[in-house]
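Tutorial, part two.
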Amino acid sequence: MKHKTLKFEDGVLKLIDQRILPLEIQYYEANNYKEVCEAIKKMVVRGAPAIGATGAFGYYLAVNESFMDQGNIKIGNIKEAKEELLATRPTAVNLQWGIKRMEKVLKNNLNKDIKEDEIVNRLLKEARQIAREDVESNKKLGEFGNELIAQGDNILTHCNAGALATVGYGTALGVIRAAHYENKKIKVYIDETRPRLQGASLTAFEMLEEDIPATLIVDSVAATLMQKKIIDKVVVGADRIAKNGDTANKIGTFMLSVVAQKYNIPFYIAAPTSTIDFDIEKGEDIEIEQREDKEVTEIRSVQIAPKGIDVYNPAFDVTPSENITAIITEKGIVKPPFKENIEKLLI
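Running the prediction step on this input gives:
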């Protein structure tokens, strides 16, 4: 994609503001960790891998603030900042993963004969490394996923699991990009993805930028396309994967998996191993974020539903592992039995 999801320049984390895409391309600037928290909560940045990298830079900014303000690193301040960062979005495990990596660097260097300014530098280096690794893993994931895509496939995707949901390249869209670059003549069907319309505003934007043939549909059309045998594969991303393969992803994903299973259409999850939560056994243990009512009752601040109507707005649902054909990672394609084969990724 032509525009970077995030970049860290001159001590400032710059995030493409996904709330206003595709109408405008603007960057939100986070000068401190609280502004990073705000960016994650308000969905300036979204997508599990992108949130993980953003959280890592937020942790660095918190440590740097403590060092610059106090003259040394105050552990109490860092712990408070860590909890604030983790509380911003509860479902995507990449946020915890990124912050744990940063915390490990801090703990491994404190109380040693290392100057604190050097510790701060090492934390920035780690955050940059997390960002680089994300792009590299997405490209590897895309290569593995491309093995599953046939010439001329029509691929359905949901929400946005592209460059905008990651530091670059994408997960589900990484697979699509790899197939497109190999000239497989694929076509993409994009669910608009209510309530926030990430498919319509973000995935469609990415496909047009790279001239990948794509058609935008309302969410309720997907089942009809599968029934008519127009869809050959479904490829989606993930926000958290349990040890047994149960997968939390954008609301509506589970419904697609049920229809795909009925019509014997392969249903693939594309996600880096950082999205696998090895501490959670099954999907029902995943905390599902509940979002505010106005995401459903308004579109871009225009009221579309009567005021006072009750709203139920979970951001994600859980697709059971038995509905999933395979999980595509940067370490290879994981097939059933998922619990056994996911554990092999730790080796």
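Residues 116-146 form the longest helix (31 residues). In part three we will examine how such features are distributed along the chain.
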